[in-house]
Amino acid sequence: MNGLQKIYVLFGGNTAERQVSVMSGTNIWLKLQGSQKYKASPFFLTPDMKVCTLPYTFALSHTAEEILSNCQEATTIHERLAPYIANTRQRLGLEKSLHEIPNTLESVPLASFISIAKHDNAFVFIGLHGGMGEDGRLQQMLDEAGVAYTGSGPTASALCMDKLKTAECLEQAGSKAQGLPKISIDLRNSPDITAIWNQALEKFKNISGALIIKPRSDGCSAGVVRLYSIDDFATYLHLLKKKVSYIPSDTLTNQPNIIEISPETGTEFILEPFIETDELQIDQATLKHKKTTGWLELTIGVLEKKETYYALNPSITIAQNHVLTVEEKFQGGTGVNLTPPPTSVVSTYQTQYIRKTLEDVAKILGIKDYVRIDLFFNHKTNQIIIIEANSLPALTPSTVIYHQALAENPPIPPRQFLEQIIDNAL
């Protein structure tokens, strides 16, 4: 085990997706415990951008806030448990464990963590989502230090984080897959709500009064809302100006879940037309497909190695309330994924067409290592619309990209898939 490549798994942060990051990071770390190639250790990024080396028990906490609290109270926790641990170890005849809580737990600035990784010849597996972990800033720091890491480099990361620039890049490249038309909003300019709303309805004439608003640069699902009326639009912008950390459930029309707002969301937002998709339901293990517009929402993972791109099978994730929540995407038991799509919904030819087109999209965007791309596909016209490209996809136990890897022939098990991501990056 001493000769294994060190892997420093970094997760946490202060974004709207910090809980998904915790689930991803701990899952990556635990999966790699059985690796014969890599030795993984967990590291937690605090909201003030410091890094803690996590003892085993702290890494198994449920939330980012719980991990942070444990790190801050490590000395107290150690003093409270030490007598019981010593007694239990003696009674069971156990040797001292490396997993016990230390009597002190220090945090270091992010730059110092990178220096430590450089000194230790460690590889950084980035389990962060949104914010500086995904927008190219962390990648730039790692590049400058000469530390290898998962995912794309600074340029592609910044491009994929910016949903407006992603669409513009695909349009300029003449890709078969295009982005949705957009209207930009900057809260610093005191936007005229009525004028913007009317402009959107005029520009997006193919819709029936419903719009999507989302941060221009943030992680997937963070702050994404379907607007049913100008009142929803006004309420959303009002709450953002107040710098709320979340929008309570039932604040907006048909909004049963809270909506997390990242402190790094910024002031720039985009409006897009809401795409009405065909209705898909699972009824007693039977798929029911009500064909209306022909549009389907899919997601697909694409792998890169030495500038060669390979798209996995796409998946259909069925949303319960028009817009996929973070929980439906990444938390077990909350979403239904169909991988690959049934041929009754998407033909074998269409699946291959989607895969080839998305390989080209990943190449245009300059993706490295791996990516997950969300898209709309019209099974009547074969049209593809890119929603967004996630340069650091979530890797929670329930993430659909694992399902896609398992659908390969031969199947790629989760730990092998994570090792392949590291191999590609190295």
Structure characterization notes:
- The protein has 426 residues and is an alpha+beta fold.
- It has 3 domains: 5-149, Rossmann fold (3-Layer(aba) Sandwich), CATH 3.40.50.20; 159-175 and 277-425, ATP-grasp fold, B domain (D-amino Acid Aminotransferase, Chain A, domain 1); 183-273, Dna Ligase, domain 1 (2-Layer Sandwich), CATH 3.30.1490.
- It contains 14 helices and 20 strands.
- The protein has helices at residues 18-31, 56-59, 64-72, 74-92, 110-119, 137-145, 154-161, 163-173, 193-203, 230-241, 326-330, 348-364, 400-406, 414-425, and strands at 5-12, 38-45, 50-53, 107-109, 123-126, 177-179, 183-186, 211-215, 225-227, 246-247, 259-260, 268-273, 279-283, 286-290, 295-305, 308-311, 315-318, 336-338, 370-378, 384-390.
- Strands 6, 15, 16, 17, 18, 19 and 20 form a 7-stranded mixed beta sheet that branches.
- The two termini are 19 Å apart.
